[in-house]
Structures are given as C-alpha cells and as structure tokens.
Design a protein that fits this description.
There is one protein chain. 25% of the residues lie in helices and 50% in strands. The protein has 2 helices and 7 strands; from the N terminus they run βββαββββα. Strand 2 and strand 3 form a beta hairpin. The longest helix has 18 residues. It is globular and about 55 Å long. The mean pLDDT is 84.
Length: 131
C-alpha cells in the first residue's frame, strides 16, 4: 500500500486529500481520497499504543470507509494486517449501486511500526506548516 500526493486545506476542520494505491499479485486498486486530519491523528495515537503493547488493535478508518487499515497484535511481536479499499458508485440513470472491495491480509512483525509512526508524524507536521 502506498499513500501519496498529499494536499491540505486551510479550513478549521482540516481535510487531507491523498491518493491510495494497493497492489497485490496482479490486483491493483487506486483511489483519490479526502478526509479529516483527525483520522490520521487518531491512527497515530493508536499506532503508538500498539507499539507500546497497551492496546491490541490499531485502526485507520476514514469516515466514508474508502480505506481501512487494521493492525492486530498477536504473540511474540507479530501483527496481523488487513487493508481494505472500498469503492461505491451510484448510477443516476438506473439507480443501481455498484460496490467493490479489495481486501489484503498478511502477517508482519512490529519492527516496521517506528518507521510508519515517523511517516504519519511527518504528514501531520506538514499540515501544521501549511496553515
């Protein structure tokens, strides 16, 4: 999974716009997403608590659920990771709704968490610098 092309607005409830790309085997999904800064801040708090073994699950859930990331602490520093990218489209002429979802599950160890925490802290700092 890669998050890129971040941009920020100057509103009081700051929104972050970014692109999310997920690739697994021959599957690939790309979405442009917009959501509030608080989603990143909450995820950062949960990642720190997960790394300190104070909670068992850290989640990144956007308000409209276009992207969901879950890290569940297992034993011996192992983590079960789940990434979901959701897409819903509504056809105005037929009133049909189309929904698709790419879900990837994999296992990792917690040694990657400090780097991920640093990356999210950098994104949040950039938001503050632009305002």
């Amino acid at each position: 999974m890669e998050l890129s092309n971040f941009s920020f607005d100057n509103e009081e409830e700051q929104k972050i716009r970014f692109s999310s790309s997920i690739s697994y085997a021959f599957y690939k999904a790309l979405r442009d997403i917009e959501d509030y800064r608080i989603c990143f801040e909450n995820f950062l708090k949960e990642l720190n608590l997960l790394y300190e073994n104070k909670i068992k699950i850290a989640k990144f859930q956007l308000i409209e659920r276009q992207l969901e990331v879950y890290f569940k602490q297992l034993e011996l520093g192992n983590i079960a990771a789940t990434i979901k990218m959701n897409y819903i489209d509504f056809d105005n002429s037929t009133h049909d709704m189309y929904e698709s979802m790419l879900v990837i599950n994999y296992g990792i160890d917690q040694s990657f968490l400090p780097e991920l925490i640093d990356e999210i802290e950098t994104i949040i700092k950039e938001i503050r610098i632009t305002n």
